[in-house]
Write a sequence for this structure.
C-alpha cells in the first residue's frame, strides 16, 4: 500500500476540509481569506506534484507519471488563476461567499484524480467530483435566472453523460473482466475484441466527449458559458478541459491503445465536426461569452486532431496545444472579467468598442490573445496549431489538416473582428478601473503568449517526457 | 434441520408481510409491515452467513429509512385512496408491460451460462478464513480506500452545493450583535444608581422622541363603552 505516492491529492483534500471548517466557523463573510487559503493550498499541491514520484498505488487505481504531473501542474495553475479572476468580480457581483473557493478546490481535486486515474472506477469518481462542483458553481449566482438555468442544464446533461460513461464502463468490464487500465491493456493487446467491448468503448468516448464539449455533445456549452458568472466561465473553459482531454488521452493511449483503429474514426469525426462548428457558429455571435464558447469548441477540435493521429507526435501536439490554450484563454477571460461599466457587467462584443483609446493596455493584451487564438505566427497559438497540423500531415491525415487550415481562416474573421471593434469603432465611455489581480493575470498570460516563440523548448520538452511516460 | 425450519419460517413471514405492505389500506400499517419484512430479511441473511449485511439492513433500513417513511406517512396527509384510483383502468397496460419484462427475464436466464472458471475470474473472490464483515471491511477500507474517501468528498460537495444554492440568511430575524452594541455611543451612558431606587425615583432615560399624539377622549370612549352595556 504505497499511499504516500498520492500525497498531493491527500494534502489538497485535507486542506480543503480545513479551509471549509475555517470558512464556516466565523460569522463574518470570509470570501477573501478563504480564497487566499485555497490559492495557497493549490500552490502547495503544485509544489508537491513537481516532487512526486512515479508508480502506481491503491491497488493500481492511482498512477503517477510524467504525464499526470504535466497535466496536474497545468490544472492547478489554471484553477488558481481562475480563482484570482473571481476575487474582485465576485465581491462586486455579490457572489462573495466562501464556498465558491472551496468548491473550486474540490473541483481541482477531482481533476487531479481524473488525470491520475488508472482504473475505470477512479476515472468515474474523479469525473463526478469535478462535475458536481462545476454544476454548483455554474448556478452560483442563484438569483439570476440565466445562471440557475445554466447550472440546471449542465446538471441534467452532465448526468446523462455520466450515465453513458457508466454504461460503457460496465460493458467494458463485462467483456474484458477488469476495470484496471493495465490489465485492460493486457487483455486487449491481441487487438481481437468482441463487438460488446467496442460498443462499451464508444459509450465511454461519448461520456468523455461531453465533458470536453466535442461536437456531437457540445449543445450545452454556449448556454452554460453564457449563463454562468464570467469567472466561472473562465474556469470552465480552462482547467476542466485540460483534465478531460488528458483523461481521454490516457484512456485511449493506455488500455485501448491497441484498438486505435476502432476509436480513431470516432475522434476523427469529433475533431472535424468541432472545428467546423466552432468556426461557423461563432461567426454571428454578438455575446462575447457565447463567442468564446464556440471558440473553445473549435479549439477542442484542433486538439483532438492530434489525438486522432494517434502517434507520439500527435499526442505531444495535443499537450502543447492544451498548455497554450490554457494560457491564452485565461488571459482572454481576464479581459472579459474586467468588462464592467458603472458597476454593470458587459457581455457584448460591441461593448469593447474604442477600447484601444480608452484603455490601451487592456486592448493591447486582448489583441495579443485574439491574434494568438486566430493562429497568427509569432504568437503562441500558432505553435500550438503547428504541432498538431504537422503530426496530422506526417501521418497522412490530409483531409483533417485541410479542414483545420480552412476553419482557422474562417475563425480568424471573428477574432480579428474583436480587434477591429476595439481599435476602429467609435469609442464608448471608459470601463471601470480593474483590480490589480486581473491586470497581473492579463499581463502574465499576455507575455507568455507573446514571447512563447523565444523559449518554446521547456514546454515542448516537458510535453515530450510526458508522452514518453504515457506511451511507455 | 433447525436451520431449514427457521428458513421456511422467516421466508414465509417475509413474503406474508411483503404482501401486507402492498395490500393494507392504512399506510402506517404498510410501513410497519415493511419493518417486519426487513427484520425477516435480516434473519435470512444471518442464516446465509452474511451477518454484516443483516446488521446493516437492520441499522440502516429499519433504524433510519423505515422510521423516516413512518414520519413522512404520518406527517403528510397523502390520500392513498385517490392514488389507487384508476387501478382497474390501467391494470391491463401495467399487466402487459409486466408480462413483457417477465418474458425478457425468462429469455435472459434461459440462455444464461457461466464459464467454467468463473469462480477464479471474479475480481474479488470470497476470501478464505475470514468472516465476511472483515472481508467487506478489507475491500472497502484497504483495497478501495482511495475510492471510498473520494466518494465521501463527492457527498461533501453535494452537501455544500445544496447549502450554497438554497440557504438564505433571514433578514427579518433579530440577532444580538455584541460588537454593534459595544460600539454604540451617545445614546447609552453609564450612571450610578442608588441601590433600591425604583424607576419612579430616578426616572427613565430615553432618547428624545417627538411629542406623543393627543389621546382621543378617553371619557367619551368610556361613556360609549358604558352605553353598550
Amino acid at each position: 500500500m504505497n499511499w504516500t505516492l498520492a500525497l498531493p491529492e491527500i494534502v489538497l483534500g485535507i486542506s480543503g476540509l480545513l479551509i471549509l471548517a475555517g470558512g464556516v466557523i466565523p460569522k463574518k463573510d470570509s470570501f477573501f481569506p478563504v480564497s487566499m487559503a485555497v490559492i495557497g493550498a493549490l500552490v502547495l499541491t503544485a509544489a508537491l506534484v513537481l516532487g512526486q514520484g512515479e508508480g502506481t498505488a491503491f491497488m493500481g487505481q492511482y498512477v503517477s507519471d510524467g504525464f499526470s504531473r504535466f497535466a496536474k501542474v497545468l490544472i492547478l495553475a489554471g484553477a488558481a488563476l481562475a480563482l484570482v479572476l473571481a476575487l474582485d468580480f465576485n465581491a462586486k457581483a455579490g457572489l462573495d461567499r466562501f464556498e465558491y473557493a472551496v468548491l473550486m478546490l474540490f473541483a481541482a481535486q477531482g481533476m487531479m484524480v481524473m488525470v491520475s486515474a488508472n482504473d475505470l472506477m477512479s476515472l468515474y469518481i474523479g469525473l463526478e467530483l469535478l462535475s458536481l462542483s462545476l454544476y454548483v458553481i455554474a448556478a452560483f449566482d442563484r438569483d439570476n435566472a440565466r445562471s440557475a438555468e445554466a447550472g440546471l442544464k449542465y446538471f441534467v446533461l452532465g448526468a446523462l453523460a455520466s450515465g453513458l460513461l457508466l454504461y460503457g464502463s460496465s460493458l467494458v468490464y463485462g467483456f474484458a473482466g477488469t476495470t484496471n487500465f493495465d490489465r485492460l491493456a493486457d487483455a486487449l493487446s491481441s487487438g481481437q475484441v468482441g463487438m460488446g467491448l467496442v460498443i462499451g468503448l464508444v459509450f465511454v468516448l461519448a461520456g468523455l466527449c461531453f465533458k470536453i464539449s466535442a461536437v456531437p455533445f457540445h449543445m450545452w456549452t454556449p448556454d452554460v458559458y453564457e449563463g454562468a458568472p464570467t469567472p466561472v466561465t473562465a474556469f470552465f473553459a480552462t482547467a476542466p478541459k485540460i483534465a478531460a482531454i488528458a483523461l481521454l488521452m490516457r484512456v485511449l493511449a493506455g488500455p485501448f491503445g491497441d484498438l486505435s483503429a476502432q476509436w480513431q474514426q470516432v475522434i476523427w469525426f469529433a475533431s472535424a465536426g468541432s472545428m467546423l462548428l466552432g468556426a461557423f457558429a461563432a461567426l454571428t455571435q454578438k455575446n462575447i461569452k457565447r463567442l468564446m464558447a464556440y471558440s473553445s469548441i473549435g479549439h477542442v477540435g484542433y486538439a483532438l486532431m492530434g489525438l486522432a493521429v494517434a502517434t507520439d507526435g500527435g499526442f505531444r501536439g495535443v499537450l502543447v496545444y492544451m498548455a497554450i490554450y490554457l494560457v491564452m484563454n485565461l488571459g482572454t477571460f481576464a479581459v472579459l472579467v474586467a468588462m464592467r461599466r458603472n458597476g454593470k457587467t458587459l457581455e457584448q462584443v460591441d461593448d469593447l468598442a474604442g477600447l484601444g483609446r480608452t484603455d490601451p493596455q487592456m486592448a493591447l493584451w486582448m489583441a495579443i490573445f485574439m491574434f494568438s487564438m486566430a493562429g497568427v505566427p509569432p504568437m503562441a497559438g500558432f505553435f500550438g496549431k503547428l504541432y498538431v497540423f504537422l503530426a496530422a500531415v506526417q501521418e497522412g491525415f490530409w483531409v483533417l489538416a485541410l479542414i483545420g487550415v480552412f476553419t482557422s481562416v474562417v475563425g480568424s474573421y471573428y477574432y480579428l473582428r474583436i480587434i477591429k471593434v476595439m481599435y476602429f469603432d467609435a469609442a464608448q465611455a471608459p470601463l471601470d478601473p480593474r483590480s490589480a489581480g486581473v491586470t497581473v493575470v492579463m499581463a502574465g498570460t499576455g507575455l507568455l503568449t507573446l514571447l512563447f516563440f523565444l523559449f518554446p523548448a521547456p514546454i515542448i520538452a516537458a510535453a515530450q517526457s510526458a508522452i514518453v511516460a504515457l506511451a511507455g | 434441520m433447525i436451520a431449514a425450519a427457521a428458513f421456511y419460517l422467516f421466508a414465509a413471514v417475509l413474503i406474508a408481510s411483503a404482501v401486507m405492505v402492498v395490500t393494507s389500506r392504512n399506510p402506517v400499517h404498510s410501513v410497519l409491515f415493511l419493518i417486519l419484512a426487513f427484520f425477516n430479511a435480516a434473519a435470512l441473511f444471518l442464516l446465509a452467513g452474511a451477518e454484516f449485511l443483516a446488521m446493516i439492513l437492520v441499522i440502516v433500513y429499519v433504524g433510519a429509512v423505515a422510521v423516516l417513511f413512518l414520519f413522512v406517512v404520518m406527517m403528510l396527509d397523502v390520500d392513498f385512496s385517490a392514488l389507487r384510483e384508476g387501478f382497474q383502468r390501467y391494470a391491463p397496460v401495467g399487466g402487459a408491460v409486466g408480462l413483457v419484462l417477465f418474458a425478457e427475464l425468462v429469455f435472459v436466464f434461459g440462455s444464461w451460462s457461466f464459464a467454467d472458471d468463473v469462480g477464479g475470474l471474479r475480481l474479488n473472490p470470497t476470501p478464505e478464513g475470514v468472516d465476511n464483515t472483515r472481508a467487506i471491511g478489507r475491500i472497502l477500507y484497504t483495497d478501495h480506500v482511495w475510492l471510498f474517501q473520494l466518494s465521501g468528498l463527492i457527498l461533501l460537495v453535494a452537501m455544500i452545493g445544496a447549502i450554497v444554492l438554497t440557504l438564505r440568511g433571514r433578514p427579518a430575524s433579530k440577532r444580538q450583535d455584541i460588537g454593534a452594541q459595544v460600539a454604540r455611543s451617545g445614546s447609552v451612558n453609564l450612571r450610578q444608581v442608588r441601590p433600591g431606587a425604583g424607576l419612579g425615583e430616578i426616572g427613565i432615560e430615553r432618547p428624545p422622541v417627538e411629542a406623543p399624539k393627543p389621546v382621543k377622549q378617553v371619557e367619551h370612549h368610556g361613556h360609549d363603552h358604558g352605553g353598550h352595556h
